[in-house]
Structure formats: structure tokens, C-alpha cells
Design brief:
By secondary structure, this protein is of the alpha/beta class. It has helices at 97-100, 109-123; strands at 3-9, 20-35, 41-55, 58-63, 78-93.
């Protein structure tokens, strides 16, 4: 997508243990929102040239922000996400897309920490 908002809502898929689903997104200027169920491990390859990256409780912003994830240990279902944003934001969460649409994600440090802890548990199952 050149300009705007790209929303990928994967919460309704029938995720199975050991299954990997690959998703690739490319945004010029705007934001990409990806929603996944809480028990799904996310393996992000996220490239944002200028803006913000938020992946399951981890946040980074500025020029070339990045979020580093440890390799998954268990056989939890996983999303292999290859995502690029030139200018804007990439937001990956177990929240519904409508909760992530604002420039500010709408939740504080406690919610981010809780989501991060759940994401870590998902990747160790």
C-alpha cells in the first residue's frame, strides 16, 4: 500500500500447534496493523525507516527502529511476519485493530508489560 492504513486481522484463523503462517506487508506512508490471537508466537522481520515499531509489548521509535525477538522454543503456532514501512508505524498486537488505529496505541506500560509476558509464554510452549 502506498499511503494509508493496512490492517491484517488474523485472530479468526484456526491456528494449530506447530503451524507457521507467513505474512508479508509493505507500506509506503502510514501504518500497518497486525492483530493475532494471544497464544500465537510472532517472529517479526520488521523494517521501518522512520517511525514506530510496536510488537507485542516491545516498542521502538525514531530512525530505523527495530524490535528483536528471541527464536521460539516450543511448537506454538507462529506468525512469520515480514513487514516494511517507509514512514509511519507497524503495530502487532493481540488487541483488535480498532484499538490500535490511533496514533497513540491507547495502553500504558502495565498493558504493554502484560502483552509482552503473554507473547514470551506463547513462544515457549
Amino acid at each position: 500500500l502506498g499511503v494509508g492504513e493496512l490492517t491484517v486481522d488474523l485472530r479468526g484463523l484456526p491456528w494449530r500447534r506447530g503451524e507457521s503462517i507467513e505474512v508479508e506487508t509493505d507500506m509506503g506512508v502510514g501504518q500497518t496493523i497486525v492483530s493475532v490471537p494471544p497464544g500465537v508466537c510472532v517472529e517479526p522481520d520488521a523494517r521501518v525507516r522512520l517511525g514506530e515499531v510496536y510488537v507485542r509489548g516491545q516498542r521502538s521509535g525514531g530512525v530505523d527502529p527495530e524490535v528483536i525477538e528471541d527464536p521460539p522454543e516450543g511448537d506454538a503456532p507462529r506468525l512469520v511476519l515480514d513487514s516494511e514501512v517507509d514512514v509511519g508505524a507497524l503495530k502487532v498486537s493481540d488487541l483488535p485493530p480498532e484499538d490500535l488505529r490511533n496514533d497513540h496505541d491507547g495502553f500504558g506500560d502495565d498493558e504493554s508489560a502484560a502483552e509482552r509476558a503473554e507473547a514470551q509464554r506463547a513462544c515457549k510452549r
